[in-house]
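Dear support,

We are seeing what looks like truncated structure output for some complexes. This example has two components. We would appreciate it if you could run it in full and send us the complete token output so we can diff it against ours.
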Amino acid sequence: MSFQKTEQEFLQYVKKMMNYEEALALMFWDMRTGAPKKGIDQRSEVIGTLSTEVFNMSTSDTMKQFIDELDNEEARQVLSEITVKTLEDCKKEYERNEKIPEVEYKEFVMLQSKAESVWEEAKDKSDFEMFRPYLEKLVEFKKKFIGYWGYEGNKYNTLLDMYEPGVTVEQIDKVFGQLRDEIVPLVERISKSSNQPNTSFLFEHFTQEKQREFCLNALEQMDYDFEAGRLDVTVHPFAITLNPGDVRITTKYDEQDFRTAVFGTIHEGGHALYEQNISKDLVGTPLCDGTSMGIHESQSLFWENFVGRNKGFWKKNYNVLKQYAGGQFDKVELEDYYRAINESKPSLIRIEADELTYPLHIMVRYELEKALFNDEIEVKDLPTLWNDKMEEYLGVRPDNDAQGILQDVHWSGGDFGYFPSYALGYIYAAQFKNAMVKEIANFDELLELGELQPIREWLSSNIHQYGKMKKPLEILNDVTGEGLNAEHLITYLKEKYEAIYQL
Amino acid sequence: MSFQKTEQEFLQYVKKMMNYEEALALMFWDMRTGAPKKGIDQRSEVIGTLSTEVFNMSTSDTMKQFIDELDNEEARQVLSEITVKTLEDCKKEYERNEKIPEVEYKEFVMLQSKAESVWEEAKDKSDFEMFRPYLEKLVEFKKKFIGYWGYEGNKYNTLLDMYEPGVTVEQIDKVFGQLRDEIVPLVERISKSSNQPNTSFLFEHFTQEKQREFCLNALEQMDYDFEAGRLDVTVHPFAITLNPGDVRITTKYDEQDFRTAVFGTIHEGGHALYEQNISKDLVGTPLCDGTSMGIHESQSLFWENFVGRNKGFWKKNYNVLKQYAGGQFDKVELEDYYRAINESKPSLIRIEADELTYPLHIMVRYELEKALFNDEIEVKDLPTLWNDKMEEYLGVRPDNDAQGILQDVHWSGGDFGYFPSYALGYIYAAQFKNAMVKEIANFDELLELGELQPIREWLSSNIHQYGKMKKPLEILNDVTGEGLNAEHLITYLKEKYEAIYQL
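Here is the complete output from our reference environment:
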């Protein structure tokens, strides 16, 4: 058969998988935004049927044949670039799945689903011992899988590669170390500062309806396309892509703390802008997706922190906010409002942490995961080690497992190697920002005017459009001319927080 | 292989198809309730992929093998009743599709989709000639298909069988004739009555929000389970089943005419009650569905007309309505309100017709379809024939094609034989009502109290629970001890309208 003919068949095959993925995404969205609860059990079966189908297709003999026929120099002469990269992606997936004995994979999947419900209960009861045997088995499985998959340099690299391809322990150790060396003393100086912001006015009643209106307004400024998306309410906010013409976001509202919805919406909006602006040429391939968890997070954090927590952004938007709020800000100056929403304080829970202390939460997890998969520590010792690290980095120590080792869902799903992406995204974001202001010299002015479209466009043309056509470090280098570099984030944090706390 | 083993495999296979159908239903619902418009093109591809998959499975060699192995006396000895009926259903579908040459089927599907968009434009322009060539081809195709499928007695029977299995032209001619003989003179007498109801107060402003609250209240009285459903807004209202634990309804609101939402919601609610109460044992099989279009319509019409347009129902609910409305009913007596919502007047548009004249609209379509497929008339003559029949039955004549022959979407999709089910449903509903009051002697009292649960339960235990386990006429006979019988509907209409118009 000619390469072109096989290419067409391969693309059709992949498109079918992607179409199934879209149906799955809609079911996921629907279950979280209002599907009637009595339909959930049967719905889970539908999700099971479709995911199994996609998994089977990704590891089928047909897929193997496509790889065998197209993954060679001769074929690459005639294949389109999109096909070559799609094939690369499918091959990686195929090999990853194919190396694991089927029976072990099934056991692992069953363990995952069981472990998640045990974790939920254990967290409710703040009882790590209850969850421990499951976590031990999950770690054991993943270690065995690393054995099958192989590794380079450090065993943990194989896990990192699933979320942040190309980034290694060596690189992360370096940037996380630099960050920690600067943030830890900065956090200490802040806690000793006599110049703490007043935050009392933040917690007054602000109706959900009015918060929603403000959020919609902010999304519009960000150039989120409402003809290609919608905003709904869920317990855990998320952004989800059905296709680039349908990228939905959700948020949650706390009527006693508007920050939850406002910064949450801007954050998810940043994720959504990425996916709305991936090139349409990539639709129907696995390349029509963010290139890594870290680059994705760089987009949400860019908007949440570098835009949403920037003083310039509030020059216009503080007045907008006042129009929607019920008078709580009437006697509060912009400067005091700005300081209040940027209050920094060591705390126990990652998802509630401020932008300065957040990376330290990630480092705690990274250090523990890395040690775990290099057999330097054991699961049973995790709670104490966690608490020790929290004390060392943040100066606070959890009283119980719910506020410590059990707080995150990730491990219960066997997701090890994911956490670093959160902090990497932050580092990337600062690097992107640094590159952006060289080209958009009036960045601050645009924020003050609420004219964010040029910023969105810069991100789209430099990052979004490529989807998975470029690897994370390739994008980083193309945009910034640098590799991973923590300096820009450090400079940003120091300048900002020294000013706010007048250090 | 043992029958039991094949049975299990067969049920698994069918379940997979049904799971795909659920995903399709969700996509359908989502596209109508708020999917972002820029995602629609790609969404259509997903729908195409999944429907093709289901169609292929229903006509596959695997399906043929199941039928060959299980469709015999020996196998039926050991198969469950559900399996036997599922197999019957699958076989019917298999044979129907298998008899049509693949290339003709594809041409027909392409024609359908083209014809629907041409019809839309033709209707806008009120130009039958524009639509005529498409309608001619659609009729030609269906005639050819009847040739492949074969027929008994009358060619039109084969079309009827797709929507109302077991019901024939002979039966319909009889009941429709009886109905027409009674309704046509009754409609004439009404139009001459000097005692017309005053309806002016119906058309005052009634906010969407308050209408929705009333509708939710009515659904709750009907025993619609909100943990297994939800109410949304769409341009064209519908009820849709994802699974019996998730049966959603939609409605539309006209702030100048609350009747649209109120009677529309009760109507769709009636459909939904059917599907919410199908036995859980049938989930995952094609039997978990209404047994025919007519029986389905009997449920919606029962609630809309025999409950919703009943004076008893408004004894309590008129006061409820007044609480939500903005004062428009303050000076209107219950009796006058009741007469107003039951105003009967010949009109041109089927979907806007009242309950008395509605069956006449159906008969016009039935007569024309029957004549068409028996080669007694030609497509080109339809507009004039339509107008003549409207004049004969209803005493009104359309000025143009948009208000006549082009008003319904059905034919543009090649759906011939569907219309009779609307009127059959009405006849069934009256028969069910007649049987019900023999067992629920205090029917009127329950309506007056708004205690509708016993009514819903009676319908569920006599009709809903069986899904497709019983054929329409089998249900009818089991519940009423009769075959198709128009007398009950005739008695109901005569008594009701003679009273309202004091004839």
